[in-house]
């Protein structure tokens, strides 16, 4: 009860601050839009082998990957905002109050999740004129999967920010983790195109299953095993990530 | 209200490096309604002590009771009873003072309607109503500091910790902050603050603990501390070098003079005496007998600076 109340308190404040500096929406949209406009058209022929016969087919394969990459990368880099708040003394001011430590973390991770969902919906809508078609129920389920990915990635990022508490050091650490994770989950091109060893490596990457689930949903295969597998695995990982960083938060930040 | 016994903390700067003792056993006893100042140079261990007492750092050893709650056994209870204002504050640039106060009150578990009311009172009490709905990044240093104080007491704690409350403030804002702290004490709050400003310790604190090298070197009221440096000093200005040598010879013999030295760069002497009140007539009489006419005589009570110098062998360097 107290956890829910405190999380809501922190989340509300974070949303307010987000709404006060709406630049993030523009910045967050610009890069994905570039990919959508300048990269995705290349894929029609490149993906012909995986059964893409039109631009619409290419978008159906590419957009879920793009959204997954956005959730993972956006989430993994959010530790920097926590560092900013640590430096400004905002976290310390909260720490001397009896507010729940997990709430301080969860409220922020949920802010990040919300931001990513808003961006994802906008991108999905902007892809419609290019021929993307996706059912509403499938889209909602895909957004749930994205939310879990974002929650997991931002919790991991907060944990990393606590372990590596300087801007200069956190950047390389996050990059080192984020790049192989994104590549090995087939966010750019489906792993199905990869050689066998790469496919084997990817199957050990939990994010791969999430991205596969996203693709299945965007293709309208809600009953595909990738969907529930992706959802279950990501939910599990999100729970572990939240628990891990919350524990770190409570330890470092008594 | 605050009792500590042998509070200790050491840090390991790097993995494998030797631990540095930041605080090596601090004993404090701060009474209710008292303003107690920890005075010392940067790096003496003042902030570490304060952060331990405010539950932000776990002590390595020792015990402490803050506002009746045991620091190590019940840090949550301590948190509810104290307010803490960090050296750099902790306000968000994009939020208004009113929003910050409401949030802070709510983080202490206060209900929404009540929190809104407390924010209103906080703004009024700290002279912030005029800017209450502007975002913090537009505030001057003094306004920001007053907001920090308002945030620190929005839940009406019985003990308030202030870390360097007036660092970087202009003189007017400084005296305003002092006024606010005194007002809080009048309302019965106990205040423990750190400072490296001697005048601040002197003007604001009921008692001072001088901190150096992770421990309290001595403590007492500002007056008591100054009396520990026995006696006063008297400066006598003389007309020329000849008079100075003559006066030096004549006065050195007097029993009331502990020691004397020539003033650097000008003609005259500085004398250390037990009590200026009884020494000055004797000094003047002796000088007259030697035919020396002093140009001026000045009496100096010892400052906390002298106390610090005498106790630690170093001057307290101001780093503002």
TrEMBL record, chain A:
Main subcellular localisation: membrane
Superkingdom to which the source organism belongs: Bacteria
Location in or out of the cell: Cell membrane; Membrane
Positions of transmembrane segments: 21-49, 61-83, 115-134, 140-164, 176-198, 227-250
Gene Ontology biological process terms in this record: response to antibiotic
UniProt KW Nucleotide-binding keyword: no
Protein topology in the membrane: Multi-pass membrane protein
Database matches in InterPro entries: ABC2_TM, ABC2_TM_bact-type, ABC_2_transport, Nod_factor_ABC_transporter
Keywords for this protein: Antibiotic resistance, Cell membrane, Membrane, Transmembrane, Transmembrane helix, Transport
MF (Gene Ontology): ABC-type transporter activity
ABC transmembrane type-2 domain sequence ranges: 23-252
Cellular component GO terms, alphabetical: ATP-binding cassette (ABC) transporter complex
Similarity field: Belongs to the ABC-2 integral membrane protein family.
Protein name in UniProt: Transport permease protein
Species: Kitasatospora phosalacinea
From TrEMBL, chain B:
Location within or outside the cell: Cell membrane
KW Nucleotide-binding (keyword) present: yes
Organism: Kitasatospora phosalacinea
Family classification: Belongs to the ABC transporter superfamily. Drug exporter-1 (DrugE1) (TC 3.A.1.105) family.
Domain of life: Bacteria
GO biological process: daunorubicin transport; doxorubicin transport; response to antibiotic
Protein name according to UniProt: ABC transporter
Gene Ontology cellular-component terms listed: plasma membrane
Keyword field: Antibiotic resistance, ATP-binding, Nucleotide-binding, Transport
PANTHER family to which the protein is assigned, alphabetical: ABC TRANSPORTER ATP-BINDING PROTEIN, ABC TRANSPORTER ATP-BINDING PROTEIN NATA
Bilayer topology annotation: Peripheral membrane protein
ABC transporter domain mapped to chain residues: 2-238
First-listed, main subcellular location of the protein, grouped into a coarse class: membrane
Nucleotide-binding keyword on record: yes
Record-level Gene Ontology MF annotations: ATP binding; ATP hydrolysis activity
């Amino acid at each position: 009860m107290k956890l829910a109340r405190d999380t809501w308190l922190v989340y509300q404040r974070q949303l307010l601050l987000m709404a006060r500096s709406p630049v993030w929406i523009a910045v967050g949209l610009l890069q994905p839009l570039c990919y959508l406009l300048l990269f995705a058209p290349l894929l029609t022929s490149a993906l012909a082998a995986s059964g893409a016969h039109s631009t619409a087919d290419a978008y159906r394969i590419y957009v879920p990957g793009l959204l997954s990459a956005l959730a993972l990368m956006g989430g993994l880099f959010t530790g920097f905002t926590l560092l900013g708040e640590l430096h400004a003394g905002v976290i310390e001011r909260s720490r001397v109050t009896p507010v729940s430590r997990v709430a301080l973390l969860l409220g922020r991770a949920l802010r990040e999740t919300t931001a990513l969902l808003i961006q994802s919906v906008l991108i999905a809508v902007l892809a419609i004129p290019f021929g993307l078609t996706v059912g509403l129920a499938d889209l909602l389920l895909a957004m749930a999967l994205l939310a879990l990915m974002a929650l997991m990635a931002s919790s991991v990022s907060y944990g990393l920010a606590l372990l590596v508490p300087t801007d200069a050091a956190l950047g390389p650490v996050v990059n080192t983790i984020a790049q192989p994770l994104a590549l090995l989950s087939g966010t750019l091109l489906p792993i199905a195109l990869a050689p066998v060893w790469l496919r084997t490596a990817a199957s050990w990457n939990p994010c791969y299953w999430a991205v596969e689930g996203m693709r299945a949903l965007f293709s309208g295969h809600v009953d595909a095993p990738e969907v529930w597998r992706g959802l279950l695995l990501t939910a599990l990982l999100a729970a572990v990530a939240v628990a891990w960083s919350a524990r770190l938060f409570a330890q470092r930040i008594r | 209200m605050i009792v500590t016994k042998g509070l200790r903390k050491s840090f390991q700067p790097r993995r494998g490096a030797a631990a540095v003792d930041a605080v090596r056993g601090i004993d404090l006893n701060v009474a209710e309604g008292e303003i107690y100042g920890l005075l010392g140079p940067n790096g003496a261990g003042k902030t570490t002590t304060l952060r331990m007492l405010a539950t932000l750092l776990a002590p390595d050893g020792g015990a402490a009771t803050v506002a009746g709650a045991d620091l190590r056994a019940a840090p949550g209870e301590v948190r509810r009873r104290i307010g803490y204002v960090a050296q750099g504050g902790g306000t968000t640039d994009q939020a208004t003072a009113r929003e910050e106060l409401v949030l802070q009150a709510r983080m202490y578990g206060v209900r929404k309607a009540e929190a809104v009311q407390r924010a209103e009172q906080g703004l009024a009490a700290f002279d912030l109503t005029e800017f209450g709905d502007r975002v913090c990044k537009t505030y001057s240093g003094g306004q920001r500091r007053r907001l920090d104080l308002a945030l620190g007491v929005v839940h009406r704690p019985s003990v308030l910790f202030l870390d360097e409350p007036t660092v970087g403030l202009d003189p007017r804002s400084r005296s305003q902050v002092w006024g606010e702290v005194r007002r809080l004490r009048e309302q019965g709050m106990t205040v423990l603050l750190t400072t490296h400003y001697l005048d601040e310790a002197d003007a604001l604190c009921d008692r001072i603990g001088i901190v150096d090298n992770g421990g309290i070197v001595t403590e007492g009221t500002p007056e008591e501390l100054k009396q520990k440096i026995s006696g006063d000093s008297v400066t006598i200005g003389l007309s020329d070098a000849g008079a100075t040598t003559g006066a030096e010879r004549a006065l050195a013999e007097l029993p009331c003079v502990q020691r004397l030295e020539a003033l650097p760069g000008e003609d005259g002497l500085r004398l250390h005496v037990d009590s200026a009140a009884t020494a000055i007539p004797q000094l003047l009489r002796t000088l007259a007998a030697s035919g020396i006419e002093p140009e001026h005589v000045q009496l100096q009570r010892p400052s906390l600076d002298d106390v610090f110098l005498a106790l630690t062998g170093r001057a307290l360097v101001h780093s503002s």
